[in-house]
Write a sequence for this structure.
């Protein structure tokens, strides 16, 4: 039997852990549950507890799975050695990712998440006129631009456009959204004509035009 | 009332006298560290693009975002390629050592630092699997997850036997590790790199101080009361963390399931068809077509998925039903790994599921692994004909059935 002093220590530890566990589970529950009376009232306390390290989202494929293939495409504006500016054709970066994933037992995050989530991030931080909302909007633009430049560099887009040397001056990104055709055994009909969302041209800073990740 | 107080005191006795679920916590330790380790090795060629200073999510962008949310990442402490490579290498090393259960408490902290540092550096690279690892790496720090199937569990009885024989056992590695990490922690704090949210820095300092207390209590002669108290506190913390880990797994399934119920595609029984036809999640288009050829089959899998996810938390009250559902979920995740091309997400989920596996099964698994290991080692030893090398086998590989319930350091 422990002496009284140490029994008090143990009792205290028990109480702290019990309270800690209950509060943490309660906060986590409120964070993942739909907005409700309690979480609306104490939203700030919940966020204070959860962010930044306990954030979570388990709604992949819920309430409905994504039913559209969203392709992110990019084209480049290149100034050739002769001083003429040429615009390249569209590069379908999502299709490139898709091909890299095909037959791949271990798809990389660079092929499966990078572009897809960058686009989601962009959409979530921009209004329908493609105007950024807040700091995160600006960050998402820079991020998407840098991915575009990196991919263009890997495709050797400058050479392909001018047939020789040149400098990448600008990029334009667009998304192409197509409905997944309904299963053969269903009687549903959806349009399979793609819809496009075209973003404005972005200037590529000089130091970035060299290609990014080496 | 009397019955209530009796149950309460029995409950208190249970959570104070031992760290529950030694096999379950060991298997999730191995599961999560293996998942992270395999992920780091798989992404080794892409590490610069994912987390490097010149990747698309550049250091500058990361700095701005972290400035607003205060997330913990050692990668932002210093600039440059060398620091990045060092952190990546240390994350791999911590993964290996946690897997083996060497100085487990310290390694669990370093493992967490590795996971948070890389993931928080580039938050937009991750998916659900990363999210699971992120949370679990924090929770693991609070557990005594090396009571079995670890190097620590092998060392503890040896040290005890030596002490009984009257030999003096001095551990140099532990204090050295503690000193080096303490210096690092102090340096980083003093030069002001530990900015942002207070939680993780506080956790680092707390574990560091607790390690010192544990060491001091072990050295002090006398009644040994401080040591017993620390042991009890460690048990209580472990049991609390184990409860959180289990509840977290239930929350994952509950949210995934309950939100699906509200979706029209999960209601009309076609939901499973769609991910199979998304470009990012269809590595085997022919297989996807085959699986979705029958509308009835798709409907059964769709309803089955929702049913299992919603039901799982409630089946914990019945051992047999729980085990059946567990088998179903592990199988489904193994299928998802291949069919949807999500191997690391699936591995992380299977590791989380494993916390609910029954002890008897885990012990058999351990014994089986040990048998296979011994057979392989014997064969190799015979081929090489070097009897001197026929030792107890590779240390720390899962499955020494005799090493049960070994108390080990904090």
């Amino acid at each position: 039997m422990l002496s009284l002093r140490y029994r008090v220590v143990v009792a205290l530890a028990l109480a702290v852990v019990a309270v800690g566990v209950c509060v943490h589970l309660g906060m986590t529950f409120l964070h993942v549950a739909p907005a409700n009376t309690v979480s609306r009232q104490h939203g700030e306390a919940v966020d204070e507890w959860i962010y930044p390290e306990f954030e979570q989202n388990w709604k992949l494929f819920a309430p409905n799975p994504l039913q559209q293939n969203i392709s992110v495409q990019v084209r480049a504006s290149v100034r050739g050695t002769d001083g003429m500016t040429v615009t390249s054709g569209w590069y379908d970066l999502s299709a490139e990712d898709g091909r890299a994933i095909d037959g791949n037992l271990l798809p990389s995050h660079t092929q499966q998440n990078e572009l897809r989530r960058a686009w989601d991030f962009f959409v979530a931080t921009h209004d329908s006129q493609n105007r950024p909302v807040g700091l995160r909007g600006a960050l998402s633009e820079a991020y998407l631009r840098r991915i575009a430049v990196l991919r263009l560099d890997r495709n050797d887009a400058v050479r392909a456009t001018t047939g020789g040397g040149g400098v990448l001056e600008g990029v334009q990104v667009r998304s192409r959204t197509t409905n997944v055709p309904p299963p053969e055994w269903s009687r549903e009909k959806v349009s399979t004509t793609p819809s496009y969302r075209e973003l404005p041209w972005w200037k590529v800073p000089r130091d970035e035009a060299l290609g990014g990740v080496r | 009332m009397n019955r209530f107080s009796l149950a309460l005191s029995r409950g208190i006795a249970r959570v104070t006298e031992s760290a529950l679920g030694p096999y379950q916590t060991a298997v999730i330790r191995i599961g999560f560290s293996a998942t992270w380790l395999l992920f780091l090795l798989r992404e080794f060629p892409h590490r610069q693009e994912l987390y490097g200073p010149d990747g698309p999510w550049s250091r500058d962008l990361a700095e701005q975002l972290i400035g607003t949310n205060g997330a913990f990442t050692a990668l932002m402490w210093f600039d440059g390629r060398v620091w990045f490579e060092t952190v990546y290498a240390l994350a791999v090393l911590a993964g290996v050592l946690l897997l083996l259960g060497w100085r487990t408490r310290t390694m669990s902290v370093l493992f967490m630092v590795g996971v948070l540092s890389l993931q928080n550096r580039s938050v937009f690279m991750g998916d659900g699997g990363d999210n699971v690892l992120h949370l679990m790496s924090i929770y693991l720090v609070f557990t005594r997850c090396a009571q079995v199937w670890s190097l620590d569990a092998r060392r503890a009885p040896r040290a005890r036997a030596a002490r009984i024989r009257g030999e003096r056992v001095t551990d140099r590695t532990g204090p050295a590790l503690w000193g080096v990490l303490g210096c690092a922690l102090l340096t980083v704090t003093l030069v002001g790199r530990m900015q942002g949210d207070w939680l993780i820095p506080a956790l680092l300092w707390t574990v560091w101080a607790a390690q010192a207390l544990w060491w001091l209590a072990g050295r002090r002669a006398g009644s040994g009361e401080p040591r017993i108290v620390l042991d009890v506190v460690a048990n209580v913390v472990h049991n609390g963390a184990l409860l959180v880990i289990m509840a977290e797994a239930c929350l994952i399934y509950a949210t995934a399931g309950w939100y699906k119920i509200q979706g029209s595609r999960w209601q009309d029984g076609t939901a499973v068809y769609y991910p199979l036809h998304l470009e990012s999640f269809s590595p085997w288009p022919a297989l996807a077509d085959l699986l979705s050829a029958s509308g009835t089959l798709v409907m059964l899998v769709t309803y089955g998925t929702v049913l299992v996810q919603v039901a799982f938390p409630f089946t914990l009250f019945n051992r047999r039903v729980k085990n059946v559902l567990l088998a179903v979920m592990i199988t489904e995740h193994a299928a998802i790994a291949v069919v949807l091309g999500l191997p690391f997400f699936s591995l992380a989920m299977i590791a989380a599921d494993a916390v609910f596996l029954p002890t008897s099964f885990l012990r058999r698994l351990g014994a089986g692994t040990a048998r296979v290991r011994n057979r392989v080692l014997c064969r190799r030893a015979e081929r090489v004909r070097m009897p001197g090398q026929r030792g107890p086998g590779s240390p720390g590989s899962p499955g020494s059935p005799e090493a049960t319930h070994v108390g080990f350091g904090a």
